[in-house]
Design goal:
Helix content: 25-40%
CATH class of the largest domain: Alpha Beta
Distance between the termini: 35 Å
Largest sheet: 8 strands, parallel, barrel
Number of strands: 27
Strand content: 25-35%
Structural class: alpha/beta
Radius of gyration: 23 Å
Shape: globular
CATH superfamily of the largest domain: Glycosidases
CATH topology of the largest domain: TIM Barrel
Bound molecules: alpha-L-arabinofuranose
Strand order of the largest sheet: 3-4-7-8-9-10-11-13
């Protein structure tokens, strides 16, 4: 059997675990909002129409922050349509997803949901069909306490307290030709800078995110970030990155190594941002908001095409996730955590029904998809500091990424609790690996939880009728021998080991 070893030492720290890395995304797309988090009349819905069964799963998932309301949707959205008496709200066409938007759910409903879900809101603004004035109007409506037309309108609409939204995205994927109001880097950079500057005149401490590339394969990638940051460096805090991965044909090995691509993407954005910082002689560092990432069977959506008819909340991209997808999601999260010094926020896209961890049927049950499990376990157990590991593992040849390390791994250490958590993926689709890690630097250790996401059938999925077909399994081979953690990692598996350190 192949062997792989990790070296872990609590003295070598990358950065604290940033809780915002466990963010998610709610877009007015398909049934994420309508029939997802919001379904008046559902047996578990509260007076506001918020589904209680979905809320319970969102809490269990451990989501900390949610980006809203889009996505491509936001680039044609008028936020004013979604506030005030529901009966007065206009019905509109949403060209991004070719659907009818009733506006029954808007900013104040989202904020009520966010409070109940105990998550931080991340608000995206429309810089596609709109601009500076609408952005500062929204900011005033949302965050100003009272005594102005817009803040008093919010109070009249039932939201007495200001929402105090701290993190704002300056548009969405403005580099993409599919985006309403798509712009060149020069055009967008200028607009983002003037909008950010104006927002800071209201509140200098806001955290602002400039649009980076909507994918590493975009022809403008790299140049886009450089130009946008040359305009915005002093007035934004973060730049976004988006990445979606899917199994292509039967190339399981390349799919399992998707995080190699994400890792490269992060390092290239960091290098570009630091290059601009150097040119500007700035001591400031721009961090990354990886505010859309997931496995997404986008080719399937492209094949089936957008809905022909304009309807309300059609089923869109309701991907049924497999065991294999869950392993890849676990691996992507490992990669985001490993870059905690520069990736300070991330949002898995999306939360419910559309490209989601949680599925919900109209008037029916809600359940956890396979990808729910690695996310929930990581969000719960990754605490304290991210440690800088050394990996000694064989490589594996892949068609898309060349030779890659067999292991993808990260460890976190919570010194207060004396808890070390190790997350590791065996990328080999066919062979197990004998895994060990020397924990001498921690002193005396005992094994706590040891679980894995793995199955004989890589393509098993959870469904409404069989919602627990894919669940984490105990890692029976795991043991601590002396100061060494040892286990056999099955092929194509995600594992988590929690180790208690005696102090
Ligand atoms: O999350 C689905 C879509 O993917 C978003 O609307 C868009 O920003 C991205 O292309």
């Amino acid at each position: 059997m192949q062997r792989a070893k990790l070296s872990i030492d609590p003295a070598f720290v990358v950065a604290p675990v940033n809780r915002r890395v466990f963010g998610s995304f709610v877009e007015h797309m398909g049934r994420c909002v309508y029939g997802g988090i919001f379904e008046p009349g559902h047996p578990t819905a509260d007076d506001a129409g918020l589904r209680g069964d979905v809320l319970a799963l969102v809490r269990e998932l451990g989501v900390t922050a949610v980006r809203y309301p889009g996505g491509n949707f936001v680039s044609g959205y008028k936020w004013e349509d979604g506030v005030g008496p529901v009966e007065d709200r206009p019905t509109r066409l949403d060209p991004a997803w070719r659907t009818i938007e009733t506006n029954a759910f808007g900013l104040n409903e989202f904020m009520e949901w966010a409070t109940k879900a105990d998550i931080e809101p991340i608000m995206a603004m429309n810089l596609g069909t709109r601009g500076l004035q609408e952005a500062i109007d929204l900011l005033e409506y949302a965050n100003h306490p009272q005594g102005t037309a817009l803040s008093d309108a919010r109070i009249e609409h039932g939201a007495k307290e200001p929402h105090d939204i701290r993190m704002w995205c300056l548009g969405n994927e403005m580099d993409g030709p599919w985006q309403l109001g798509h712009k060149t880097a020069e055009e967008y950079g200028r607009l983002a800078a003037e909008t950010a500057r104006a927002m800071r005149q209201f509140d200098k401490d806001l955290e602002l995110v400039a649009c980076g590339s909507s994918g590493r394969a975009m022809p403008t990638f790299g140049a886009w970030e450089a130009t946008v940051l040359e305009h915005t460096y002093d007035v934004v805090d973060l730049i976004s990155a988006h990445a979606y991965y899917e199994l292509e044909g039967d190339d399981v090995a390349s799919f399992l190594a998707s995080s190699v691509n994400m890792d490269l993407f992060i390092r290239e954005v960091v290098a570009t941002a630091d290059h601009v910082g150097a040119k500007l002689s700035s001591a400031k560092k721009i961090n990354i908001a990886f505010d859309e990432w997931n496995v997404w069977y986008l080719r399937e959506l492209q094949r089936s095409g957008m809905p022909e008819d304009w309807t309300v909340a059609p089923r869109l991209s309701e991907d049924a996730y497999t065991v294999l997808d869950a392993v890849v999601v676990g691996s992507l999260l490992i990669t985001l955590l490993r870059h905690s010094d520069r990736v300070t926020a991330a949002c898995q896209a999306q939360l419910v029904n559309t490209i989601s961890s949680i599925r919900a049927e109209p008037n029916g049950p809600a359940w956890r998809q396979s990808i729910f499990h690695p996310f929930a376990l990581t969000a719960r157990h990754a605490q304290g500091q991210v440690l800088d590991l050394r990996v000694d593992a064989p490589t594996l040849d892949t068609t898309k990424h060349g030779a890659v390390s067999l292991l993808d791994s990260v460890a976190t250490y919570d010194a207060d609790e004396g808890t070390l958590a190790v997350f590791v993926v065996n990328r080999d689709p066919a062979q197990p690996v004998a895994f060990s890690t020397d924990l001498r630097a921690f002193g005396e250790v005992t094994l706590g939880d040891a679980v894995m996401v793995w199955d004989e059938d890589l393509f098993a999925v959870n469904t409404m009728d069989d919602p627990d077909r894919v669940v984490p399994q105990p890692h029976r081979s795991a043991e601590v021998v002396g100061t060494s953690l040892q286990a056999e990692l099955p092929p194509a598996s995600w594992s988590m080991f929690v180790v208690q350190v005696s102090r």
